[in-house]
């Protein structure tokens, strides 16, 4: 009877040995669907686009002349009688005045508004890239945890077989109770590890809820994205990558547009040194009086302001505009350095992870699997101890878990590269 049970246990172990392969998770939510939902639901991007539209509309309005002023009233009306035909200078007046822009300030103001709108559009594009990166990293982390749980559940089946086998051997007196307690303790520890992984899965789903709502709690498709364009770019590069690699990034485009807008502020500050003109036309109607025939009057006036005291106004505004332009140039340079450094860091991480993935696929995984299989065959031939078989199989599982984590870490590094290469790598890569 014991031999039959032992044979059944061995058959179960052999069956499980061939089952330790990463199993795909068939799910309703995959990586691309998560990105589509996040981009569709993102309120910040929608608000940014509306802000850009507002800036464009405001730029058109700001580039126009001021509205003309219409005036009408009474001049020189005698207060003793309030009669219109008593004094020859009494008039009923109507007029119109137009204030002209100072120099070329209207055009410059409109261009400044359009540049700020352009910067806002670029900031929205950068926001969407950062959103894609955040969702990608979180989704990849979630997928890695789901796959890790699957591997640990398979490992648990092995430990359950071990506990059952030790219980049988204890009943026949082949082992002491200590051995059964050790195997049960190993199973309990593994259960705790599985619970911890499930907690990590729930936390990652909670993070995804921020961007995709209740869809984060659906089963997930853990297949890795292909991203052939990014992988081809990485294979063609040598570290360090040149700074020109990030020239097309929308964050840099936003910074450049803001610098150009500050340049328009400098030009506007120069325009403030020019006089501002105002033209006024008026017509005065008079009534005949004993001393006058009541001829009507027409008037034309031109007024101009004189920016004579420049030290504390125009000079200071020009200095402020130049300082803001210089600050914008330095901020753009700092952004370029950060993007360039981030790209080099992500590329270096991806290359290192790819080398480790190759090592696992070429040496570590085959060696661990071959060791486990050899010990299992030795156990079938009564030349190896079951403890050694279980230890080897657990080491093979740990190697698979490590290889799995390397795969997802590698693709997280690729996701960062795709963010930094927004202008060079097509955004729609699968």
From TrEMBL:
Coiled coil: none annotated. The keyword Acetylation does not apply. Gene3D superfamilies: Outer membrane efflux proteins (OEP). Residues 1-27 form the signal peptide. InterPro entries: MdtP/NodT-like. Keywords: Signal. It comes from the Bacteria. The keyword Signal applies. PANTHER family: BLR4935 PROTEIN, OUTER MEMBRANE CATION EFFLUX PROTEIN. This is TolC family protein. It comes from Microbulbifer flavimaris.
């Amino acid at each position: 009877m014991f031999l039959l049970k032992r044979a059944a246990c061995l058959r179960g172990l052999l069956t499980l040995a061939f089952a330790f392969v990463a199993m795909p998770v068939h799910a309703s939510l995959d990586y691309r669907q998560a990105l589509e939902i996040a981009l569709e639901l993102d309120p910040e991007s929608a608000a940014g686009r509306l802000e850009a539209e507002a800036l464009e509309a405001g730029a058109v309005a700001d580039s126009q002349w001021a509205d003309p002023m219409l005036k009408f009233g009474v001049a020189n009306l005698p207060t003793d009688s309030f009669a219109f035909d008593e004094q020859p200078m009494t008039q009923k007046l109507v007029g119109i005045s137009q204030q002209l822009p100072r120099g070329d300030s209207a055009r410059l103001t409109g261009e400044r508004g359009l540049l700020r709108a352009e910067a806002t559009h670029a900031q929205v594009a950068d926001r969407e890239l950062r959103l894609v990166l955040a969702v990608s990293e979180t989704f990849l982390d979630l997928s890695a945890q789901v796959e890790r749980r699957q591997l640990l559940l398979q490992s648990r089946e092995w430990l359950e077989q071990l506990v059952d086998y030790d219980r049988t051997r204890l009943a026949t007196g082949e082992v002491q109770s200590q051995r059964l307690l050790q195997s049960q303790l190993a199973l309990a520890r593994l259960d705790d590890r599985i619970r911890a992984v499930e907690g990590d899965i729930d936390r990652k789903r909670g993070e995804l809820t921020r961007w995709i709502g209740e869809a984060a709690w659906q089963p997930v498709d853990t297949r890795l994205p292909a991203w052939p364009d990014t992988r081809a770019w990485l294979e063609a590069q040598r570290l360090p990558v040149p700074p020109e690699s990030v020239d097309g990034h929308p964050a840099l485009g936003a910074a450049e547009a803001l610098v150009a807008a500050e340049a328009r502020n400098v030009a506007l500050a120069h325009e403030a040194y020019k006089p501002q003109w105002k033209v006024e036309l008026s017509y005065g109607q008079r009534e005949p009086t004993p001393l006058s025939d009541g001829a009507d009057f027409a008037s034309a006036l031109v007024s101009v302001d004189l920016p004579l005291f420049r030290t504390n106004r125009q000079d200071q505004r020009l200095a402020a505009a130049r300082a803001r332009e210089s600050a914008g140039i330095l901020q753009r340079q700092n952004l370029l350095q950060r993007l360039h450094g981030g790209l080099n860091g992500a590329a270096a991480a991806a290359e290192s992870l790819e080398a480790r993935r190759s090592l696992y696929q070429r040496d570590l995984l085959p060696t661990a699997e071959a060791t486990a299989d050899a010990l299992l065959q030795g156990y079938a031939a009564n030349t190896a101890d079951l403890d050694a078989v279980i230890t080897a199989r657990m080491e093979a599982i740990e190697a698979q878990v490590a290889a799995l984590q390397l795969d997802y870490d590698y693709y997280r590094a690729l996701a960062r590269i795709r963010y930094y290469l927004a202008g060079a790598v097509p955004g729609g890569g699968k």
